[in-house]
Amino acid sequence: TPRVFSGIQPSGGLTLGNYLGALKRFAQAQDAGVETIYCMVDLHAITVWQDPEKLRHATRELCAGFIASGVDPEKSILFNQSQVAEHAQLAWIFNCVARMGWMKRMTQFKDKAGKNAENASLGLFGYPALMAADILIYHATHVPVGEDQKQHLELTRDIATKFNHDYGVDFFPITEPVIEGAATRVMSLRDGSKKMSKSDPSDMSRINLTDNADTIAKKIRKAKTDPEPLPSEVVGLAERPEARNLINIYAALSDQSVEQVMRDVGGKAFSEFKPMLADLAVAQMSPISTEMSRLMQDQAEIDRVLAEGAGRARAIAAPILRKTYEIVGMVGA
Ligand code: TYM
């Protein structure tokens, strides 16, 4: 039976990219009736420095972001990673399965470590093994993510395959990445060749989940475009990254395909299309920011939701860890 797992780092600030590439699709998977497990990966966040108070705040705010985006803690299991020790325990086993050479090829490590990789944390290097553990500790079969996580999910499959092969078992499933829809890579509003990211120095480059209606509308009005009107057909978007990005965002927000959207707006000037996009984005995004601030009023309730989710997660994870230990040859498992 299918089981969906995905995670988001509480490293401060959620963007429209996180919403369209992840959160909105998490809620859709949940509403389709599949078993869904969603995690705030605080152990991943500390692979780069996090101020403790800010981390605590970001974890709670992320939880509010999940709920405001339609993830229902009654229907989905919603929790923070560090409350379920099995993630870190399985990650250790996977540290002993994954090869140095595999990790060295991870483009996200190279990007994040930058020029001075000697000074990166060991945790940042091992990050994808912990991510594989997040997924496989639940025997999850499907992992909805944005495009940027593709290589990590391939590594997860490699780890599962090598574990099964080395121990001669058919224990860990070979997980399917689910990278679908028009917005698996939302780009910066200032530069169509860069991913929309919370770490971009320009706040105008992104829409934050906490932005109010006026800010959202302003950012779309000011989004970079080229001087031509929109092309009349999808193919015309190929060499026009900014136009394509805005069309992709429109399609994902309105649950349409890019083809459908182009049938309606193809040929329009940006002066006509941008207000349409702004209205749509405000209608969909501003209730989320309102709901997030409402939920943040009651932090005890958020902590209760996370603790309860962790209990349910542990009930699935503990027997899988025990069985893994037994396979590996640990006495007492
Ligand atoms: P993170 O926290 O960077 O991002 C969370 C999710 O948002 C997606 N995303 C985007 N999608 C489209 N366009 C964008 N501009 C954009 N920016 C971010 C990401 O692809 C991701 O799906 N390593 C993961 C967290 C993680 C995880 C896991 C994910 C840890 N363990 C297990 C899945 C399964 C990360 O850093 O995501």
TrEMBL record:
Its main location: cytoplasm. Signal peptide: none annotated. Keywords: Aminoacyl-tRNA synthetase, ATP-binding, Cytoplasm, Ligase, Nucleotide-binding, Protein biosynthesis. InterPro entries: aa-tRNA-synth_I_CS, aa-tRNA-synth_Ic, Rossmann-like_a/b/a_fold, Trp-tRNA-ligase, Trp-tRNA-ligase_bac-type, Trp-tRNA_synthetase. Catalyzes the attachment of tryptophan to tRNA(Trp). It catalyses: tRNA(Trp) + L-tryptophan + ATP = L-tryptophyl-tRNA(Trp) + AMP + diphosphate + H(+). A motif ('HIGH' region) lies at residues 10-18. The gene is trpS. Homodimer. ATP binds at Q9, P10, S11, G17, N18, G146, E147, D148, V186, K195, M196, S197, K198, S199. CDD domains: TrpRS_core. A motif ('KMSKS' region) lies at residues 195-199. It comes from Roseovarius aestuarii. GO terms for cellular component: cytosol. This is Tryptophan--tRNA ligase. One of its GO terms (molecular function) is ATP binding. PROSITE patterns: AA_TRNA_LIGASE_I (PS00178).
